[in-house]
Sequence to fold (753 residues):
Amino acid sequence: MFKIVEKSFLQDIVVRMVIEAPEVARKRKPGQFIVLMIDEQGERIPLTIVDSDSEKGTLTIIFQIVGKTTAKLADMKVGDHILHVLGPLGHATEISNFGTAVVVGGGVGIGVAYPIAAALKKAGNKVISIIGARTKDILILEDEMKNVSDRLLVATDDGSYGFHGFVSAVLQNLIDSGEKIDIVFAIGPVPMMRVIANLTKPYGLKTIVSLNPIMVDATGMCGACRVAVGGKTKFGCVDGPEFDGHEVDFGLLMSRLRTYADQEKQAMENYRCESHGK
Amino acid sequence: MENKEKTEKKEKKEKIPRQAMPEQDPKERIHNFDEVPYGYNAELAMMEAKRCIQCKKPSCVAGCPVDVKIPEFIKLIAEGKFIEAAWKLKETNALPAVCGRVCPQEDQCEKVCILGKKDEPVAVGRLERFAADFEQDSGNIVIPEKESPTGKKIAVVGAGPAGLTIAGDLIKLGHEVTIFEALHKAGGVLIYGIPEFRLPKAIVDAEVNYLEKLGVKIVRNAAIGRLKTVDDLFAEGFHAVFLGVGAGAPVFMNIPGENLSGIYSANEYLTRSNLMKAYLFPEFDTPIVRGKNVAVIGGGNVAMDSVRTALRLGADNAYIIYRRTEVEMPARIEEVHHAKEEGVQFKLLHAPVEYIGDENGWVRQMKCIRMELGEPDASGRRSPIPIKGSEFIIDVDTVVVAIGTMANPVIQATTPGLEVNKRGYIVTKGETGETTREGVYAGGDIVTGSATVILAMGAGRQAAKAIHEHVMAKG
Ligand SMILES: Cc1cc2nc3c(=O)[nH]c(=O)nc-3n(C[C@H](O)[C@H](O)[C@H](O)COP(=O)(O)OP(=O)(O)OC[C@H]3O[C@@H](n4cnc5c(N)ncnc54)[C@H](O)[C@@H]3O)c2cc1C
Ligand SMILES: Cc1cc2nc3c(=O)[nH]c(=O)nc-3n(C[C@H](O)[C@H](O)[C@H](O)COP(=O)(O)OP(=O)(O)OC[C@H]3O[C@@H](n4cnc5c(N)ncnc54)[C@H](O)[C@@H]3O)c2cc1C
Ligand code: SF4
Ligand code: FES
Fold:
């Protein structure tokens, strides 16, 4: 049992939670994730470890409510217990001093981008972060990102804050401005990562993306998380989650993510009805 | 005179035919996940037990990988001493309720039973199941005496049949035993792979509870190699480590379209259904595709379990696509029989070459090729050869690839000095399970490749002896 020790809404549908999981907290490296299962009937879902405190023995997660499990998790209170937490999973981000690193985070992906940006900064990189959201109210972790970046650029789709447009346009401007970039990390919705990867490819600009395929065990046992990278099948959980963005088949990832769309909708509706009944 | 006595005895015995085990009607059972056979009642069990002629040199025992005292336990059943029969079984087999259900008896004890020469062999497996169930149902489960504490700590990685067996043996010898299991439930393939209708999970849970009552500590959600390494375990004070991590990584065929939605590895399909209880969705949260036309690729137990699961999830057409013939099929005869009764369609001498999807990335069709049998290969089985130009299309909306599994590299990659062979299985010295790392032992599927429950248990037992000697010798 893993106790929830802090919980707050970063905005309407994005929750930050701190969970007690001392052993995972001690071992975890940036880029790694956990799988959690709320209760006996629950689904196993993967979430990135955004931060950890090995002294307090805690992990921080940030998640967006997109379906039943994330909704149920968001309804839990401080002091409640999550039944199962498995981790740390996946390869840690390969961090070194690349020179200038651009970290692009979109939506809840900023949560995943944050520990990577922090680690890159610590390793001596010049970190330029580009974060974006649909609109100002749902932008998360701006201050945190600012603290670990040499420069922070913000974009909103509706222009309510920062640059009016997509993060990809900001990156394009940055490249056009003559900034010498050594590596790009792009983490966010699949379409965003695809656009960024397509953008950097002609420049031969190394681009790492963090993929979020559907997972079950997340230990390499089932292959639910299959992704195609460079024409080869890889398992997102044990070979990833980070891959060379220029090699990833994003179309496949998107269609596989839709596999259970009908059931997910049904589960969410049932859950909403149940929790309203209470 | 001697001869006459023999014939008389034989005649008397052989009057009783092999007793069938009552089972659920196939038409009913394809709509539920309840266990298929109901098991013997006391009367049937005693009748079957009386068929055994109590051989002086029982060939059945020689056919059993763990030397279960077969005539002895059967005699006790014949005498109505059911609990005693269960205890007799447990002297050599830690999981008789499991083995009675899933062991390939037709290749082991029953294959060599003397009665089988002229008539049908004694139903050893069914009797084993009966006695073990009788004990569990009676609630009269004895916790055996443990040796006095040795002060030695042993880590067991993986809670499958190998890990559970070694844990039981070592705790009885007075050691402190901790099992580390990556999943949130203990049992290995018994819990995530083999379906409820063949092995009820309550039986596995009862065995796991029993071990915990004995004092075995089970740490779930502990993926060794990730949460901690084998070296970390030694640093924490464990005196020996046993690796029973199974051969859990799925194998795909790498043919075009294999990553389309609706195409599963058997591991994923069965894990969703069994471990995550997706067949109870939406009561349980994990979804599974309930296909109407389901093709399962393969001819082993895993394929049979998958195809029978597909039927129970509502398939109209459930196919086995196997590249050889029924003779070469590695699945247990009983499972093939059950599958046929349930309406599974066997497409033998067939192999998929490509999957064809729709605009949303969903599998819709499968291109198959017909095969013919050629010369025997290294395994002695005649190898299948594709017949040129024989390709044709089958409509499918779900595919389960059940062509085997391989070693998961996580442990090996994080344990320096642990030698593996070129297929990734851990190299051991003989039967003791000793690896190339001092104090590290291994057994079960991670050493042999996918095998059987009983062989994994046998390996656990052998390694228990070796570990005991090793840690005691170190003083
Ligand atoms: C390595 C990794 C790290 C992730 N980190 C984060 C994170 O830090 N914050 C965050 O908000 N989200 C993260 N995700 C995505 C998160 O796992 C899904 O949003 C979550 O599983 C949705 O579950 P649900 O029941 O609420 O929604 P559902 O209704 O089940 O599904 C909604 C969407 O989530 C996807 N999804 C469903 N089940 C799974 C599953 N078992 N595994 C992965 N995706 C699934 C589906 O494709 C669907 O599009 C990560 C995913 C991966 C693979
Ligand atoms: C669907 C199916 C049906 C089968 N049917 C039969 C049958 O009818 N009869 C029969 O005799 N055999 C059958 N088998 C084969 C049999 O189940 C296996 O041979 C047997 O379970 C092997 O036991 P094991 O202990 O070696 O490994 P497993 O049962 O595979 O258990 C290994 C355990 O280790 C855990 N693990 C793996 N990596 C780690 C790690 N890094 N850290 C911690 N834990 C880890 C796994 O999660 C798992 O719980 C079947 C197999 C399958 C898949
Ligand atoms: S070989 Fe058959 S008849 Fe002989 S002891 Fe074994 S089960 Fe009984
Ligand atoms: S999630 Fe099962 S292998 Fe990756």
About this structure: Residues B 52-55, 58-60, 70-71, 113-115, 121-122, 124 surround iron/sulfur cluster (ligand 3) (CB under 6 Å). Chain A has a mean pLDDT of 94. The longest strand of chain A covers residues 2-11.
